[in-house]
Amino acid sequence: MALAQAVALRQFRGEYDAAWALAQRLSALGREHHFGLYEAAGAIFQGDVLIQRGELEPGRALLTTGLTQYRTRNTPILLPFFLSFLATAALRQGQRADGLHVIDEALRLTATHFDRFWEAELHRLRGELLLSQVGNKPLSKDQGTAEAAACFQQALDIARQQGAKALELRATMSLSRLWQTQGQHDAARALLAEIYGWFTEGFDTADLQEARALLKALSS
What are phi and psi of 128, to 5 degrees? Predict the structure, then answer.
């Protein structure tokens, strides 16, 4: 369990080399002691690391194998969290319908099993998947864009209610990028600056570096 938590932390910070090494240890320990749930979780984390590195096909294959093994344990615990990795893979591969199907399942599990800590991120990913349907066309307040914006706002509201500042930052970045494409630079910068200014540490993490770069772009 300690290894699983350590992997998740490294992964969330964007430290994928460390996450990979820990995930391998997790799988090996699960295999050695016949803890199938942890062996599967290790494979799932390794699959996500590959996806984050851009190795989409092998990453998705490993992730799918791990999820299949995880489901055989008949536990819904953490399944919405793990399904978000699969949705991210689908988003990066341009498989929007598959990604939306996965997110819908994850949200149903979240609602029925009260596994709500990742709920904000699921809504944010749903917005990203919906927005990807627009393709390279200039964005406007059409139905798809409006629905994506609603998903980002819902993610933001949930994160704020939960006091989940890291997820609030992610939701804010997604909404700010959308507003940026619509020419609402001042509103986007103000929204992002507020949550970015809350942080007093962690500026070496991937999310805060991305937020800093986006703030710079919105200020130029």
Answer: -65, -40
Reading the block at residue 155, the tokens are 């993610």
pTM above 0.85, yes or no: yes
Tokens of 53: 């590195």
Coil, strand or helix at 115: coil
**Over the stretch 138-165, which tens digit does the pLDDT of each residue have?**
455 566 799 999 999 999 999 999 999 9
Greatest pairwise CA separation for the chain in angstroms: 56
| Domains of the chain, each with CATH number or no CATH | 1-115 (1.25.40.10), 123-220 (1.25.40)
- Ranges of H-type helices in 141-203: 143-162, 165-181, 185-196
114 sits in which H/E element: none
Give the chain's radius of gyration (CA, Å): 18
* CA pair distance 43, 97, nearest whole angstrom: 24
